[in-house]
Design goal:
nine-stranded mixed β-sheet, single chain, alpha+beta, 698 residues, seven-stranded mixed β-sheet
């Protein structure tokens, strides 16, 4: 049921948002500053909520509230306590901001008491690592959250920003208006993270962006596949990169790639920072670059999974189908394969794995040509089908999953992978303008494989070729670390289990040396592993370190990510993991699923007593290339609300799932008719009763 608010967006103008981003890259580490400018063009006091993405491994450690020339630094609290501090400030009319995490790569900013005609700036900072793959470095800054499909079987996984209290707040009148509530005006489709802007209305939320790149080695090429950029060189190793257009709508991930000059690429990088008397290290080591010809290739069974849901419509499904064509055409003769496609349901091209010969490849291509993107995103059935493929001794099972990851039940799917994987390997390929990096990376890590992004169709051939090389064999296996240190303290390294490494990818891990100062650090780190049938080792001199701000935050985020992935099966194990995550987050001032940052202007009360506060969500763009019709199951809603046809679609179960409403939501038309009949029957019974009473009295 929808409740009509006393005031709607027709009465006041919604707040607008623009963002300025500066990405400072030093070697393997990125420090990112985001300034979100909330403007209130209306004549009422507003509270704005904005949901936005950050990289899945971002260590968010700073929030600043700026009002004119005044600044207020945020403090980290456990989530419930942070929400209480923020709510009390909002109730009292003070200007405040709350930064929370709904997923490791989805955050929300809440800003209370933005005055009429006023601008409030929220400044967010985080630390992150650079990605290296196949001889090139890359950094992805996500700009939009792809609408998420919510399977009806997992309503407990639906996460929305906290709803306002239903009662009147103290000393003020509240305009109840759509923050995670069903009274949101029905002029825009929405998912679990809030409303999505009607693409016919144009794009909003402009972003300016600059990258200060200090690679630490000679730069050969710099490029951005998704945006036009301007590059200003500053010597051989440094450059400044900006958007050629000045600013762009937040509708497609920004990706920057750079490659080193030949023979200038370092084989190892050690970056360090001392915090509270302890040394923190981030270590990156490149594996051997050449494939070992002595390694015997194991015959392989390959299952390719294609996401053909509505969010993949357009360029995403085109790229995915091209990638699958290339992958199948390059399979070795002794390989067997199958192709699974899914939307609301999953189906396979063949009943079982088939040899990679001309006959079956032709049939697979014909089936691929007939596929179109539409419907929901029921990944579970597809993964079940793929991981349930019969295993044969002496053959390696590999699953390649091409998707944008636009689902809300990531945890359920990761649990499924952990349970069903066995000795198979899972490789993920991110497709589309804004893939769900959190799910893509975690699924590949759980599947002991790798993940790949394809942003530019021109990169498709190279990316698929690189993926096939990784599928053939790992570069290093059975990796372990041995520390030769003067102290007795045991280093704390994450991830705890170093995975297999594939050609073209580095070994990267973060370590804390408790009670050790960088100045006194000495000794060596020995990395051991197997390269084919032979032992492989590399010794790193711990005295040859480069200092970098934020390394400690990267270590803390790595520890939290490892704990999230291994929370255990029992309630006691999950409680212990949660306690460790909270302790680490509070110590290193990080935003996580259990902690939030809150900043409050405690110097003055801004909103006059008795003045109402209107609460509203700031819409986000639909990612570039996506179709509102395909994503939400109907054409974009018109400004006048739903048409009768749209209303009937809204009652459809699949459509409700696409917008994140519970599957158990009752059809309004059906219930209205039932209610009307019930009322009519009650009136008839009342008339009959009075008639009988009247006759007895007579």
């Amino acid at each position: 049921m929808f409740f009509q608010s006393d005031l709607t967006t027709d009465i006041f103008a919604a707040p607008t948002l623009s963002s300025d981003v500066v990405i400072d890259i030093s070697g393997e580490i990125a420090r990112v500053n985001i300034r979100q400018r909330f403007r209130n063009p209306s004549e009422v006091w507003l509270e704005g909520v904005y949901v936005f993405p950050l990289p899945e491994r971002a260590a968010v450690d700073r929030l600043t509230l700026r009002i004119g020339a005044r600044e207020f630094e945020g403090e980290i609290f456990e989530k419930k306590e942070a929400e209480r501090v923020y709510r009390e400030a909002a109730d009292a009319g003070r200007q405040a901001s709350l930064l929370s995490s709904a997923r490791p790569n989805v955050f929300s900013t809440r800003v209370a008491n933005i005055g009429p005609g006023e601008e409030i700036v929220i400044e967010i900072e985080y630390q992150d690592r650079i990605r290296f793959d196949d001889g090139a470095y890359s950094y992805r800054f996500p700009l939009v959250v792809t609408p998420r499909y919510t399977p009806g079987t997992t309503p407990d996984l639906v996460v929305v920003p906290p709803a306002p209290r239903e009662d009147k707040w103290p000393e003020m009148e509240t305009i109840k208006f759509g923050v995670g509530r069903s009274d949101q005006p029905k002029t825009s489709p929405r998912d679990i993270f809030g409303p999505v802007r009607n693409t016919e209305d144009g794009s909003i939320n402009l972003v300016s962006l600059a990258v200060l790149l200090d690679a630490g080695f000679g730069l050969a090429e710099i490029g951005a596949p998704n945006h036009d950029i301007t590059i200003t060189r500053d010597g051989e190793t440094r450059a400044i990169v900006t958007l050629a257009a000045g600013s762009v709508p937040a509708a497609q991930d920004f990706v920057l790639n750079w490659t080193p000059v030949s023979n200038s690429m370092p084989m190892a990088g050690l970056f360090t920072e001392t915090v509270d008397g302890s040394t923190h290290l981030v270590t990156t080591v490149l594996p051997p670059q050449n494939i070992d010809p002595t390694i015997t290739m194991i015959p392989r069974d390959i299952v390719l999974i294609l996401d053909k849901s509505g969010s993949m419509h357009g360029t995403a499904i085109t790229q995915a189908k091209q990638a699958i064509r290339l992958a199948i055409s390059r399979l070795p003769k002794d390989a067997r394969f199958n192709l699974i496609a899914f939307d609301n349901a999953a189906s396979s091209v063949f009943n079982s794995l088939q040899p990679a010969n001309e006959k079956f490849i032709t049939r697979a291509f014909e089936a691929l040509d007939r596929l179109e993107a539409n419907g929901g995103t029921e990944m579970r059935e597809a993964l079940d089908l793929a991981l349930g493929s019969p295993r044969q001794s002496g053959r390696l099972m590999q699953v390649v999953f091409l998707t944008d990851g636009a689902v809300s039940n990531e945890r359920e799917l990761l649990d499924l992978i952990n349970r069903r994987l066995g000795d198979a390997r899972l490789f993920t390929v991110g497709i589309g303008p804004a893939p769900n990096g959190f799910f893509m990376r975690r699924a590949a890590e759980a599947g002991r494989g790798t993940f790949t992004y394809i942003d530019d169709p021109r990169e498709l051939d190279d990316r698929v070729s690189s993926l096939l090389r990784k599928l053939e064999r790992p570069a290093l296996t059975d990796l372990s670390l041995t520390w030769d240190l003067p102290g007795a303290d045991v280093p704390e390294t994450y991830p705890v289990r170093i995975p297999d490494l594939y050609y073209g990818e580095p070994i990267t891990f973060a370590t804390k040396l408790a009670g050790t100062n960088v100045a006194s650090l000495s000794g060596t780190l020995k990395i051991k592993g197997r390269r084919g049938q032979e032992d492989w080792t590399m010794d790193l001199d711990l005295a040859a370190l480069r200092t970098a701000k934020g390394v400690a935050a990267v270590w803390a985020r790595s520890k939290i990510a490892d704990l999230e992935a291994q929370q255990g099966q029992t309630e006691a194990e999950r409680d212990r993991a949660r306690d460790q995550m909270v302790e680490t987050a509070l110590t290193y001032q990080l935003v996580t699923q259990f902690t939030s940052l809150v900043a409050v202007d405690d110097t003055e009360v801004a909103r006059p007593q008795g003045a109402p506060l209107a609460q509203t969500e700031i819409k986000r763009n639909l990612p570039v290339g996506m179709s509102m019709d395909k994503v939400f199951g109907t054409k974009a809603f018109g400004k006048g609300g739903m048409t009768p046809v749209q209303d009937s679609m809204f009652q459809n179960t699949a459509f409700r799932q696409a917008v994140g409403l519970p599957v158990t939501a009752t059809p309004a038309t059906q219930m209205a008719i039932s209610g009307g009949l019930a009322i009519a029957l009650a009136l008839l019974l009342l008339i009959l009763r009075r008639y009988r009473i009247g006759r007895r009295a007579a």
